[in-house]
Amino acid sequence: MRASLVQVAVNEGESVASRRRRIAASVREQAGADLVVLPELWTTGAFAYERFADEAEPLEGPTCEAMAKAASDAGVWLHAGSIPERDPDGTLYNTSLVFSPSGEPVAAYRKIHRFGFDKGEAVLMGAGDTLVTVLLPHTVLGVATCYDLRFPELFRGLVDAGAETLVVPAGWPERRRSHWTLLARARAVENQSFVLACGTAGTHAGVPQAGHSIVVDPWGEVLAEAGAGEEVLTVEFDPGTVAGTRERFPALKDRVLGLDRPHR
User: Shortest CA distance to 210 belongs to which of 224, 225, 222, 200?
Assistant: First the structure.
């Protein structure tokens, strides 16, 4: 399986509409990949809190339209990162979108753990309450977003739902980059799954971003890692090795405590 993680630079001076067109073009350039992944809140910047309300859009909005067309043109499965979604009731959510190679929207995940410690995203956006997996031809994706990476029980729930490849778009700050790498590897090892973690580059509202998108195998080995700037990280991996890893080292069978959460 071939995956391309598009590490987007989100900088002031580029409009959302311009960046949307640019990233759609980048997705089209990944034709030949099986899966393309974009970062969290790449339209606005994860720390640009003051822009969330102004740039929020419905699920069927311009980003969905542009990404559906890009996925169809490239013939790829596309995890289009996340957008600030405005629900019909007015609530904002940090929502990830997944599209099939035909451009069909197949899943939307509202971020469960909101970052900010009683400010920022934590107070501006509603919390999701449902785990989401997506069946691809070669693997089952488990979908999470950024701050979720710090909560292992969420990933246990995704594994219980059949996830073999964990996809984590993020807007992770440079000052905690060591946590980013550590947690991505930990989630891979403890769940015996591949982890595809796609971050942003640039600076969001004065907060330098970590970049360093990373792909980790079920043993915690780093298969590929990006640098700090905008780039496309492409890696070949075999999702079939997940079953073999879990069979040879059946740690998951020794679990005593589980996670009980609604799943769709």
Answer: 200
- Written as six digits, the tokens of 222 are 């780093």
- Residue from 123, 131, 55 nearest 96 by CA: 131
55, 64, 85, 111: which one is catalytic?
111
104 is catalytic: no
Domains and CATH numbers, the chain: 2-253 (3.60.110.10)
Residue type, 223: L
Strand 105-110: give its sheet, edge to edge: 105-110, 92-99, 77-86, 35-37, 2-7, 231-236
**Are 124 and 52 a contacting pair, CB within 8 Å?**
yes
Exposure letters 137-151 (e unless 16+ CB within 10 A, then b): eebbbbbbbbbbbeb
* pLDDT tens track for 230-254: 999 999 999 999 999 999 999 999 9
Task: Indicate if 146 belongs to the active site.
Answer: yes
pLDDT for 180 equals: 98
Enumerate the H helices of the chain as residue ranges.
16-28, 49-55, 62-74, 121-124, 152-160, 177-191, 241-248
Q: Is 40 in the active site?
A: yes
